[in-house]
């Protein structure tokens, strides 16, 4: 085995179509706490955008999220931990939201876990990526009755009365 190709003998260039190479492969990390709380890339991205824009509205717009959804996530984050992750200053001129020191720590811990997970899984991820078929094309959600939907791997399909 050599060259970091995961033992497949294929180089990065021969791994398939554009977008299938290692550079396009991503690993996502989500922490599912025992009691059902979750911390994942969306909440962290929102906190980082709030830090940058100092506004929940501006942060939501910057990451393509609705203001309502952003507020719900911020509220969930503030209830999730013993310490607040943001503070707001209503009525203040200019920026009205700041990420707290604890919020910064949450971001830092999450990003550290991401880096550690990426490092720990890089060999396996490279091997999986190098084994991808160049002929793969994602299927759209097939409608019942479509030949693709009738595949035994497609799952149960309700029979239509006729």
UniProtKB/TrEMBL annotation:
Composition-biased stretches (Basic and acidic residues): 10-22
Alphabetical list of Gene3D superfamilies matching this protein: Winged helix-like DNA-binding domain superfamily/Winged helix DNA-binding domain
SUPFAM superfamilies to which the protein is assigned, alphabetical: Winged helix' DNA-binding domain (SSF46785)
Family matches, as InterPro entries: Molybdate_resp_trans_reg, WH-like_DNA-bd_sf, WH_DNA-bd_sf
Superkingdom of the organism of origin: Bacteria
Location of the region described as Disordered in the Swiss-Prot/TrEMBL record: 1-22, 134-162
PANTHER family given in the database record: DNA-BINDING TRANSCRIPTIONAL DUAL REGULATOR MODE, TRANSCRIPTIONAL REGULATOR MODE
Name by which UniProt lists this protein: Molybdate transport system regulatory protein
């Amino acid at each position: 085995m050599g060259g970091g190709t995961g033992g497949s003998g294929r180089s990065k260039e021969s791994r398939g179509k554009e977008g299938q190479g290692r550079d396009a492969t991503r690993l996502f990390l989500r922490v599912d706490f025992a009691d059902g709380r979750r911390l994942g890339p969306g909440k962290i991205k929102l906190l980082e955008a709030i830090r940058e824009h100092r506004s929940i509205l501006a942060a939501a717009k910057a990451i393509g999220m609705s203001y309502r959804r952003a507020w719900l996530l911020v509220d969930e984050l503030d209830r999730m931990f013993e310490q607040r992750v943001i503070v707001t200053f209503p009525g203040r001129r200019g920026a009205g939201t700041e990420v707290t020191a604890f919020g910064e720590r949450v971001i830092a811990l999450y990003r550290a876990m991401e880096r550690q997970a990426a490092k720990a899984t890089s060999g396996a991820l490279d091997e999986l990526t190098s084994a991808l078929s160049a002929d793969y094309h994602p299927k759209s959600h097939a409608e019942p009755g479509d030949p693709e939907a009738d595949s035994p791997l497609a799952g149960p399909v309700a029979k239509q009365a006729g």
